[in-house]
Amino acid sequence: MKISLVEFSVENFKAFKNKATFSMVARKNDHTFESNGENLLKTSFIYGPNASGKTSILEAFGAMKRFILLSANIPENQEKKNLPYVPFLASNQNADKPTSFEVTFSLENSNNNIYRYNFSCLKDHVVSEKLVSISSADTEKEYFSRTDQKITVGTDFKDMENLLGNVRKEALFLSTSAQLNNAFALSLVQIFNSVMVVSGIHSASPQFTIKKFKEDPAFKEKILFYLKKADFCITGGDTQELDFQGIEVKNDSGKFSVEQKAGKDSMLFLEHPVFDANNHSTTTFKLPLFQESMGTQKFLSSLGPIIDALESGKVIFIDEFDNSLHPFLTKFIVDIFESEETNKYNAQLIVTTHDTSLLSYRDEFIKDQFWFTEKDKHGSAKLFSLAEFDMRNDTEYAKKYLEGRFGALPFIGSVKK
Fold it and tell me: On the chain, which terminus has fewer CB atoms closer than 10 Å, C or N?
């Protein structure tokens, strides 16, 4: 079963004191696809100054996803429960207020229903939780509802009635039901697991791409196809098993230890042409991935999750999308998701970026695809869409953004005295 994102909201999380809602809903156009009665965007871009809350939106979705996947497995005797309670700290009004998450989504082959799931939590327990479906007639069907430890269930969760008094306060009812093999809960948890959240450049590990490159010949050909299309002067590649030695630093409750590690690891080598005096390609040489440029490493690391999303119609979030990439490359990736030919299953791409060149393609995108974050003077972030601004059709979005017409710019003082 495939998920498509309709909306996502978060409140009292990191920089967001108040509720922030991100939406992939737009009027029907070349940038949308229809899913259970909703016209949903294929791509969306979030802009804003550093430390304005862009990454917090992606982190919030990642935190929600991890808690859905793992909350039922938190050991009862574990002192730190790792609930996704990360409150806004710049106001004493939020000190005892729960962190809240809500996601509205569409499921393929689900009787034309849209689903909305939400929960809120404090540092040691779940405060509320609810799952409903919304029909095309805009009527709601409740699957379950929770306030602290009081839980009520609908017909699809009747097999969980004997569980109602035994759900641990730090675990989600959805996660617990999935762990106990409720079919619908299990399918929802698996669906949330399919959503990919790719963090900033320092955690964009190439291992997923290398694994697919090594094990799946068709996937390998697609990676090489896009590397060639992106003009990296790469003609081929392969993986080799190499011995490695290193150390692992462990932190056990403040007690650090160092352990030597040794074994084998897959190294990706990329093939480049060698030219003679007449500029004819005569042979090739190979470079290990770590010797390639940062741009090549970033692009290749992203390719694995991107191709995986395209092949299965998944939702993928990428933070710092343009880091180490030329603006033509970021546009190239966006075009892959926008194209019906290469995005046959309606995968969705949501990115944070500083690449204002995307704003300059006025005739290729619509206002609904652009979002901004900014903080007020009290440190509270807000999220808003370019669609909220009334502008002429010939407005140059990039120019107006850099002029400060939409806000979401850093206020940088002069270095001159």
Answer: C
